[in-house]
Amino acid sequence: MSQVLNGIDVLLRQGCKPLNGLRVGLITNHTGLTREGKPTWRGLLEAGVKLTALFSPEHGFAGIVDEPVKDARHPETGLPIYSLYGEHKAPTAEMLRAVDVLVFDIQDIGCRFLHVHLHAGTGDGGGGTAQRARGGTGQGEPH
Asked: Cys bridge to 93: 6, 34, 52, 133, which one at CB 3.0-4.6 A?
């Protein structure tokens, strides 16, 4: 029987080769899990990825906040967790200072339109901001 794999599982099976030598920012929350239930951030770190920043969408990194979320530090890694559902709705140039590439890993069944819309906006805003911070237009051109 064939297995369905999430992007993180495919990336880990590839040895995270597309991320080699890059400083990685991860947009995720409590739903970002590997097939084995391991948080995406942990899987990336264990694979040797240079994770430099975490970004959290609506409801915060742990998915339990029902109000605008403040930036924080991850308790296990010390990495900054930048909120994209507080003062900022997309990463700023300063947040991306130590980031070469953004990885987006949020799993959602999409049963609430608003929820899906906000996540799609976070992903697009993050990518567009990253491109603009590097001199692009933010319209999907390669970096």
From this structure: 133
Q: Where are the alpha helices (DSSP H) in 17-96?
A: 40-46
The CATH number given to whatever domain includes residue 71 is 3.40.50.12170
Q: What is the mean pLDDT of each run of 10 residues along the chain (143 residues)?
A: 85 94 91 90 96 83 70 92 82 90 80 44 51 54 43
**Helix (H), strand (E) at residue 105:** strand 101-105
Q: Are 91 and 123 in contact (CB under 8 A)?
A: no
Judge residue 12's burial from the number of C-beta atoms within 10 Å of its C-beta, 0-12 exposed, 13-18 middle, 19 or more buried: buried
Query: How far is residue 44's CA from residue 49's CA, in Å, rounded to a whole number?
Result: 5
What is the pLDDT, as a whole number, of residue 143? 40
Q: Is the whole-model pTM more than 0.85?
A: no
CA distance 56 to 76: 16
Please tell me the distance from the alpha carbon of residue 12 to that of residue 49, in angstroms, as a whole number: 10
Instruction: Evaluate whether residue 142 is within a structural domain.
Output: no
Provide the domain count of the chain.
1
The answer to whether 44 and 7 are in contact (CB under 8 A) is no
